[in-house]
Amino acid sequence: MPTKKINQSENKVADLKSKYNEIIAKEMMTTHGYANVMEVPRLRKIVISMGVKEAVKDKNAIPEHAEELAKLSGQRPVVTKSKKAISNFKLREDQPIGLMVTLRGKRMYDFFDRFCNITSPRIHDFRGYNRKSCDGQGNYNFGITDQSIFLEINIEKIKRTQGMNVTVVTSAKDDETCVDLLTMLGFPFEANKKEN
Q1: Domain containing 133: what range?
Q2: Any residues with CB less than 8 A from the CB of 130 and at least 6 apart, and which?
Q3: Exposure string (b/e) for 39-60, b if CB count within 10 Å is 16 or more?
Q4: Which of 160, 162, 66, 166 is nearest to 111 (CA)?
Q5: How would you class 157 by CB atoms within 10 Å of its CB: exposed for 0-12, middle for 13-18, buried for 19 or more?
Q6: For the chain, how many structural domains are there in total?
Q7: 193 domain-assigned
Q8: pTM of the full predicted structure?
Q9: Does residue 194 fall inside a structural domain?
Q10: For residue 46, is it within any domain?
Q11: What is the pLDDT, as a whole number, of residue 141?
Q12: 166 and 47 in contact (C-beta within 8 Å)?
């Protein structure tokens, strides 16, 4: 049975991590019948990655987007490099082609909270994320097409539009439990559509 989204204004808790520990974990133990609090699914990490295709032509692309990713995540990103050369794409081996940051602990919860309550509502014509984007192993994946939705980034300084992929890794063992956990944490899923 899907769990309900908890209204944060009704439960005045200092931050999302405290809200999870004090409210959500107990609610999930009741609804899912967990015998031990250690069985309750939790957020493990959030991975944000960018494939910067402009890096092949423009050497400034990686540093510029690294600065943007650092601002929106609160953590310095790691530069990812190509594993092999591909002549058709003018790609050399060991060439910087992307960026990645892995958030854990307080930074993870802070980013998740900001993304759900501040960033997502800024997306044009936003109707929620697809509930079927789980991978069956407790991970939820979604893409962002434009970095300008983040308040941390100055729109006037953006030189090119850059998308990114976000993976929310949880300890849930199936898709339904993963969606239940993220819903209770406040993730903006699209409304359930009525089946014919």
Answers
A1: 42-184
A2: 142, 189, 190
A3: ebbbbeebbbbbebebbbeeee
A4: 166
A5: exposed
A6: 1
A7: no
A8: 0.83
A9: no
A10: yes
A11: 95
A12: yes
Q: Output the DSSP codes for 46-88.
A: EEEEEE-GGGGT-TTHHHHHHHHHHHHHSSPPEEEE-SS-BGG
> 107-124 burial, b if ≥16 CB within 10 A, otherwise e?
bbbbbbbbbbeebbeeee
**Cα distance between residue 37 and residue 58, in whole Å:** 50
CATH number, residue 98: 3.30.1440.10
Each residue's pLDDT tens digit in the chain (196 positions)? 455 544 544 444 468 999 998 999 999 999 888 888 889 999 999 999 998 877 667 778 888 889 999 999 989 999 887 666 666 566 666 567 789 999 999 999 999 999 999 999 888 888 899 999 998 888 999 999 888 889 888 888 888 888 899 999 999 999 999 999 999 999 999 886 544 3
> What is the distance between the alpha carbons of residues 14 and 4, in angstroms, rounded to a whole number?
20
Residue 31 lies in a domain: no
Q: Name the CA radius of gyration of the chain, rounded.
A: 19
- Among residues 166, 175, 109, 106, the alpha carbon closest in space to that of 142 is found at 166
- Rounded CA-CA distance 136/178 in Å is 9
